[in-house]
Amino acid sequence: MITIVLSYYENGGMLDRHMMEWASYTPAVKAHLRAIIVDDGSQNDPAAGHIYDVGFPVECYRIKENLVWNIPGARNLGMHVAPDGWCLLTDIDHLLQKDDAEKLIAVLPSLKPGTFYWLAREWADGRGLPPHHNSYVLQRSLYWLVGGTDEDFSGWWGAGEGAFRANLSRVAKHVDLSDVYLTHYGRNDIPDASTREWGRRGSGYDWTTNPALRAKRVPYRPENPLRFEWERAV
């Protein structure tokens, strides 16, 4: 069994694309899957309105507060409610297409505890991309062994992904699954494929402008995850 864990913020069109793809998976693949969607406080287009029966369990959780750039918190919540075992932790704009879902399920028995895996990646039009180093196939227990994602980074673009990756790399090795692809959608493909509401690199939300965050040095264990109220929506 593997759980797909996605965070969501006003990405209704992109979530529709996931749901359509998931519904197309074969029954043999669906038997090994579940999905968890974490809605990070959407005010206008909640994720719950896009959930329907795709043939395997899809759960939706909602963070009650509309916190800016709370990707660390959303990831922590998704991995908190995920069952023990393997997870595909990725971003909403990265889709596991039908053929790649079959490949992932086929290699699942060979995956090793204490190892995290990066998938190959391509654009929606088939152009190649480097692997996405913020998308992981890993066990839930390994995610929490390093304390999850540091919510000190919430409120800042960059999401603490570098710190998480460095902390994880101290205790586990990585392997590339070069035959299993994630398909990356840009806003030219689907207008709400990624967050549009707040600034990114070079803006006032860029974490590199925060001296306290820049001063953090790995390895360390993040503290106090889930610093918000949340509920199950579906």
| Name given to the CATH homologous superfamily | Spore Coat Polysaccharide Biosynthesis Protein SpsA, Chain A
CATH architecture assignment: Alpha-Beta Complex
The tally of helices reads: 7
- What fraction strand? 15-25%
CATH class: Alpha Beta
Helix content: 25-40%
Enumerate the spans where pLDDT stays under 50 for 5 or more consecutive residues. none
* Secondary-structure element string: EHHEEHEEHEEEHHEHE
Instruction: State the CATH topology.
Output: Spore Coat Polysaccharide Biosynthesis Protein SpsA, Chain A
Q: What is the spatial order of strands in the main beta sheet?
A: 8-4-1-2-3-10
Give a short account of the largest sheet: 6 strands, mixed
Task: Report the count of strand segments.
Answer: 10
Number of domains: 1
Write down the overall geometry: globular
Would you tell me the overall average pLDDT?
92
Q: Distance between the terminal alpha carbons, to the nearest Å?
A: 21 Å
Task: Round the Cα radius of gyration to an integer and report it.
Answer: 17 Å
Which secondary-structure class do the elements indicate?
Answer: alpha/beta
